[in-house]
Structures are given as C-alpha cells and as structure tokens.
Amino acid sequence: MNLSRRAFLVFYRNLVSYKRFVVSTFIASLIQPLFYLITFGIGMGAYMGAFGGKTYLAFLVPGVLITSVMMSSTFESLYGAFVKMIHEKLYDSLIATPVSAEDAITGDILWGAFRGLISGGLMMAVAFFMGVFPVSVPAGLLLCILMILIGIMFGSMGMIVTSYAPNFDFFNYYTELVITPMLFFSGVFFPLDNFPAWMKTLAQFLPLTHAVQVSRAVYSGVYTKTLLLNLAFILALTAVAFAFGVGRMKKRLIK
Amino acid sequence: MKTIIKAVDLVKNYGDFPAVKGISFEIREGECFGFLGPNGAGKTTTVRMIHCVSPITSGTIMVDGLAANVDNRKIKAMTGVVPQEITLDNDLTVFENMMVFSKFFDIPRREARKRTDELIAFVELEAKRDNKISELSTGMKRRLLVARALLNKPSLIIADEPTTGLDPQARHLIWQRLRLLKNQGTTLILTTQYMEEAQQLCDRLVVMYEGKILKEGTPRQLIDDEIGREVVEIRIEAEEDARLIAELAPLACGHERAGDTLYFYCRDGRAIQKKLVELDLPNTVHRPATMEDVFLKLTGRSLIE
C-alpha cells in the first residue's frame, strides 16, 4: 500500500472546505441523536425505572453517542466520497499530484472519523448538561480515542460500499439493510440480555454491538474481560475493512 | 535535442477492451507534442499512463529517466496536468483552490501565496480571486485549471483537450499561454480533436486511431505527405464521379468521395480550377490543405461513435 503523510494533506483540504458547512453539519449531526436522547431517554426513561442502579438516560447515552459516530463517518464515506469521485472529480485532481490514491482515500476515512468525533463530542457535551458524563477525565479522553477508532472502522466499511456503487440509490441497500438494523439489534436502546439466543448470536456479528459495549464500559468505568473480545473484534474489522476499502477504491480511481 | 519521454510497445487493456494497442513514440525536451485522434482513439489513456494515473498493461514509459508505474510520485511532482474534465474544488474559492493544491506539492506557504498571485494574474483571473468556482464561466474554470497545473513549476505539462467547449477568445488566450510556456522551455503534451489547435501549437504530432498510431510528423510534413498543398471540393451528385474523375484525376494526387462532396487533393490546384471553369461547375471550393484533411483522410470521414 502506497500510503504517506500526504493523507493528512487531503484531510487538511477537507478542513478548509468544511468552514462553509460547519454550522449546518453541527446542526445535522446533533438533531437526530438529540431526539433519541430526549424522547427515549427522558420521555420513555421515566417509565423504565433504574438500569443497574442508573437512570435509563445513563444507559442510553454511550450507545447513542457511538451510533452518531457511526452515522457521521458512514455518510461521509458513502455520499461524501461518491460526490467527490463521480460528480466533482476531485480524486482525479488529487491523484494527478504526488498524492496517491491510497493517501486520498485514507485522508477521507480520517476525515469521516473526525466528523464522527465531532458528532460524538457534541453528544457528549449535550449529555453532560443532562447529567450524564464519563466517570473521569481520562475516561472522557479514552472515549474520544474510541470514537476515532470506530469512525475509521465505519468509514472504511463505507468506502467498500462506495467502491461498488454505480449510483446514489445503491447506498439504500447498505443503509437500510446494514446500518438501520444495527441501530436496533446492537443493544443501543436496551440490553441484549432478554433477546432470544439467536438474536444474541446475531448481535455478536454486528460491529456496532461491540462499539456500544466498549463505549458503555468507558462511560461507567466498569471494565470486564469480555471487553478484550469486543476490542479485538473492532480492531480486526477495522484493519480488514481499511485495507480492503482503500484497495477497492484505488482500483476504481486508477483505471 | 534530448529525449524526455520514451514509450516502447505501450499496451493498455480495460478488461477485454484494448484501448492502446502497442504504440511507441519519443517526445523531445522543449517541444510541443500532440496526440490527435477522434473520440476513443486512446489519446487520453496514453497521456494518463505518462503521468501515472493509469497502470500500464505492458510496455514501458520513461519520463526524464524515471519509469512510469514505478517512480509515480516523482513523475507527478514534475508534471503539471490540465485535465479534460473540470476537476476544480467547488467548495473552495479560486485562491483557496490554488493554495490547497500547492500543499499537495509541498510548496511552502509563502512561496505558494506568491505563485498563486502570479498565476492568477497569468490567466487573468485577478478579479475572481475570492469567488467560488460555481461563480466562474467555463472559460474561467479552464484558465484556472491551467494556472493550477503550473503551481509546481512543472518541466512537463500535459494538456488533455484543454479548450473543449470554449469560445474563441478563451481558446486563444489558453493557446497563447501554452505557447508562452513552451517558449520558456517547458515540454508540452497536448491531446486534441481540434485540428486548428494542433496546427497552432504542435511541433510534432501523431494521429491515433483505434489504439494505434497511424502517422507521425510535423503538421506541415503530414499535410504534404498525405494531401499535398491544396484541396478542391466539388459539391455534386455521386453519379457524376466517373466522368469527373476521368477528367480531373490526372491533374491531382488523390481523390475521395464523402457524402455530397468529391475531394481532389493536389500540389497545385490551378490546373483543376481551370478545368472546372471549362466544365462549368459552379459549386466548388479551392483552398489550402489543412490538418483536418489529413485527419479525415486517415481516420475516415464517417461518424465515429
């Protein structure tokens, strides 16, 4: 893989263009998770009693936060990258410079992770004012690192999808068949314990499940041994998806 | 003159489709070298292989001692590309486009700012410096593409159909700028389907068709070899061909029928002209031969789709 520090120049390019959209994207990445927190967390939470000695909102926040990271980085890799590739031909101009195709795609995956970090960071701030926050300052920093890692994972997965996409409609398969189900079967809104066995098994194959588990542990400061498995899953999937996503996109860009 | 680019037995297949079928050519330092051909002839594919954004199926290209497909970053660092499609960054202003692009070539910020100002002036876009790309006309966008291609002070410029879709003013401005660069010693590679563009700019050129090089030479030489000096066009029904060819062919070096027109190619058209007056044929044109005649003769006069 012909990867260099120039990936960060591509990241920088995105940062320069981001200035214009910063307000609209802040609002967009905040609204939906905020609705989840308000409706489920406060509205429904009032009927839910305590979750392991904590409020339902405290259960919900780590999951919704990591879900918003997933959404931001995924959409950046799907729609963002597709527009740059097909409509704006931006990658064509990038790869005509010493920037390689691998640099360009990596830069955009990192950018998606950064967007995820912003979404998740905003969530963390909002939750803070609702009285839910990580157990310590180092835990908060750890959470930021986790968000970047999860952003790279979902950003890389998105790049694989984009590398096959003939048009925008293609993305519906991925968002409706992969992303949306993950939202409901990954233990974001309620614990997986009461699911039937087959659903529990299914959940173990969903990357979001593992991300939520780690996020929840970092928030609460309660670490168990199974977290290592969660983390191993995340790291392995990230490595494979990154290598495959970058490789596939390179094939599409350099014909 | 030193050879700067040497391609040997260059082949490019897209899956089963052969886009370039084993071509060889040499480009000399400081010249303007043209790739002429209709759509799908393989011109763009060839230049994309030269500046390393398309992998070579087989064969080799050496660019200033560097092998394409191997030393890609080095070749790209010394090359300026004016792309066929408008690949400007729509989210950024004219100035930002230049500044961000200069980063990719590791140009220090102060130097980048200086070059950006100079180049924006070079393509006469000072008034649009802080406008967004969407506020520019096609001609302005193409001029900005030329300016952007010069940021890294390239010793090799590749212009892939740089004036497609432009009005005559904008086209001439781009030609002038490209000629100016050539006069400063930059090697220029041009692909085009505009014969006038080829004649205006190219020292030497190749005519490509269906992935192969049909002819190579200077524009003047190609016209001379293929057509002669002059062309007589007669708009007349095809039934008259036999009679006219019998009368006129001895005076010409070649003839061809295409659509409603019978063409005679010759060194000196006056004899034919005289004959035409005798034959009382009013609907005729007598003109100097151009690259367009060469092009159409070599690649056929029917539509290529």
Please supply descriptive tags for the structure shown above:
heterodimer, A: 255 residues, mainly alpha, 10 helices, B: 305 residues, alpha/beta, Alpha-Beta Plaits, 6-stranded mixed sheet, 4-stranded antiparallel sheet, 11 helices
Task: Give the structure's gist in a few sentences.
With 255 residues, chain A is an all-alpha fold. Chain A has helices spanning 7-18, 22-48, 56-87, 90-95, 101-129, 137-164, 170-185, 197-204, 207-220, 226-253. In chain B, a hairpin with a 2-residue loop joins β4 and β5.
Describe the structure.
With 255 residues, chain A is mainly alpha-helical. Helices cover 78% and strands 0% of the residues of chain A. Chain A has one domain (7-253). In chain A, helix 3 (56-87) crosses helix 9, helix 5 (101-129) packs across helix 6 (137-164) and helix 6 (137-164) packs antiparallel against helix 9. The two termini of chain A are 17 Å apart. Chain B contains eleven helices and 14 strands. In chain B, strands 6-7-8-3-9-10 form a six-stranded mixed β-sheet, with helices on both faces. In chain B, helix 3 (94-104) packs across helix 4, helix 5 packs parallel to helix 6 (168-183) and helix 8 (219-226) crosses helix 11. The two termini of chain B are 38 Å apart. The chains are: A mainly alpha (255), B alpha/beta (305).
